[in-house]
Amino acid sequence: MLFPLDGLGPIPLPEGDDEAPLVLGDVRAVVLERESEDDYELARAAWAARSERPKSAVLGQLGGRPAWIQADETPSCPSCARTMPFIVQLEEGPDHRTSMNFGGAGSAYAFACEPCGRALFLWQC
Ligand SMILES: [Zn+2]
């Protein structure tokens, strides 16, 4: 699904400890955190070191540059043929009960061409 940015906002976290994810059965609540490092893998490692948690607890990135597991598969827009801007990278997550399945230790990538209202989602493992 592709939503216009205007009017969107994060939903509030459930009551609880702001420092740790709140596990609600088979649902996981997360916090958006910013790192000063531009490179995703370096930012992920920095976060893990600072938070003393595993890198697998990082569930992805908003914006930035995709950290491809395999070759660069940046798509072209099927409508205008321009290179599609990168939107988000998602990781499977550290817990099999709540993980997304991107082929086993995979990552997923979403791209969107806002003028054309088109988006593409792909994954690699
Ligand atoms: Zn387009």
Note down, in words, how this protein is organized.
This protein has one domain. The protein contains one helix and six strands, in the order E-E-H-E-E-E-E. It has one helix spanning 40-51; strands spanning 23-24, 27-28, 60-62, 86-91, 107-113, 118-124. Strand 1 (23-24) and strand 2 (27-28) form a beta hairpin. The protein binds zinc ion. Zinc ion is lined by residues 77, 79-80, 82, 113, 115-116, 118.
Number of spatially distinct domains: 1
Note the overall shape: globular
Which residues sit in consecutive blocks of at least 5 with pLDDT less than 50? none
* Strand line-up in the sheet with most strands: 3-4-5-6
| Secondary-structure element series | EEHEEEE
Ligands, ions, cofactors: zinc ion
Rounded Rg: 16 Å
**Total strand segments:** 6
By DSSP (H or I, 4+ residues per run), the number of helices equals 1
Classify the beta-strand content into a percent band. 15-25%
Mean pLDDT: 88
Main β-sheet, in a few words? Answer: 4 strands, antiparallel
Approximately how much helix is present in the residues?
under 10%
Alpha-beta content class: mainly beta
Distance between the termini: 23 Å
